[in-house]
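User: Can you predict the 3D structure for this chain?
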Amino acid sequence: MTHDVRPRAQFTELVKLHMQGRRFLDREQERKLLEEGLSRYGLSLDEASGIVRAHAEGDEIALEGELGRSGTQLLRTMADGRGRVSRDDFGKVVAFYRARSGSSLTQTEAERRVKRLMEEHDLQPKRSGRLLRTRRWYRAIET
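Assistant: Here is the predicted structure, written as structure tokens:
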């Protein structure tokens, strides 16, 4: 199967332009780039996503999907046997998420995304506090 090199090269240039100066690419931005590769440049989904991933990796740009998988693995590793994550461990995953995104996410945005990961993977918050042990710290994070 032979493909015209020109559309690939043009799409690669579009990806470079779109990612210039970024440290993080969310799912919606990535999806729009992939749609552009499919519809405008006639690439397959594998070709387009390969170009996006290769460029993101080369320029150390975090893709939300990749970051979500890493964050989920980290949460699962830190969770206890009953699938509960402590407040301190949650904070460590948030810090990891922010660091990998090049701090392009605020603390609040990173907390929301990590909470969403916990909910998607049926992980629960551990109770926290000295006298009154509650999950209020977790519920206070708006999704």
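The first helix runs from residue 5 to 19. Residues 64-139 form one domain.
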